Amino acid sequence: MPLFEIPVVVPYRLLEDADGVLYSIQVHAIASTEAAALAIAGMLVHAHARIRHPDRVIEVLADRAKIGQVRQQIDGPYAYVLTQGNRIHHLTFPARIDSQSGESMGNTFAGIDPKTLNAVLMDCHALTYINTAGLASIAAHAKRLHLRLFRISEPVRKVFEIVGLLQMLRVHGTLQSALDSLVSERGTDLP
Q1: Which terminus of the chain, N or C, has fewer Cβ atoms within 10 Å?
Q2: Is the pTM of the predicted complex or chain greater than 0.85?
Q3: CATH number at 75-191
Q4: From the centroid of its chain, how far is CA 92?
């Protein structure tokens, strides 16, 4: 099933907040349908809110979410960039990360400011090939970007294992498990 960029604005609130303030996050979700985009955006917003408001109970108001028009099709791996702001962007990469695209990925990762970043979560399901330039880009920026990879195919996982990257990378089976790990980690190291 093809994936598309689908923008979603999701409001949330803090329960037990006397002021009743509503917050909202714009998510550029990658999904096959609007319903799936809403579900993914809800997961991302809930994690983002838990990092932003530790020790508070969060209520994501999915029934008040606004879903934008379906945009471009996404054919390769992609990454959600969770910043400390009110938008969750995405980056897209080709299904085959060779020398040129690996260098481009490294330059993209290098341009992300870690001071305003919570994490980068990369869905590797559509990644069919990665060479040393791509591996080097991931390795060089993994710690600085709090990079988490999820849904890695078995052939790509074997490549990471052979070169020793599995020991230094945070690898998860699903987006939800990557988010849970992130919230757990970031909750302990927030300023």
Answers
A1: C
A2: yes
A3: 3.30.750.24
A4: 11
Dig out the tokens for 106 from the structure.
């490294």
pLDDT one-digit tens code per residue, 131-189? 999 999 999 999 999 999 999 999 999 999 999 999 889 999 999 999 999 999 876 55
Pairing, β 148-150 against β 170-172: parallel
**Between vectors from CA 152 to CA 140 and to CA 162, what angle results, nearest 5°?**
60
Measured in degrees and rounded to the nearest 5, phi and psi for residue 152 equal: -85, 130
Distance CA 57, CA 49 (A): 9
Q: What is the CA radius of gyration of the chain?
A: 17
Looking up tokens 């990257």 gives 165
Contact 178, 151 (CB under 8 A): no
